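BUG: 3D viewer hangs when loading the predicted structure for this chain

Environment: internal workstation, default settings.
Expected: structure renders.
Actual: progress bar stalls at 90%.

Input used:
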Amino acid sequence: MKDSPSRRATKRTVIDQSVLGRLGLDPNDVIAIEQECIMLRPVTGSERLSEEQGVWTLRTGQPISAATTDGLLWQIRHERDSANLKSGDKD
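Structure tokens produced before the viewer hung:
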């Protein structure tokens, strides 16, 4: 049975800064708590890709500029249009 401290707002876990550093955890990282043992590991790795309101969302921890997303969207549309035009020539 796993639980997440973020679901229980009244309880907090304090972990020494040196332990956080050795485990590669940041002070505000969410950790998984298992009843059989104490296992500290970041939860973010397993929850980076999630579905939100019917849209798949990838969390990278870094902001993405509008220019970057616009450029990628243009590239995908251009590749799709090129592929559609090529497949239309074969008929």
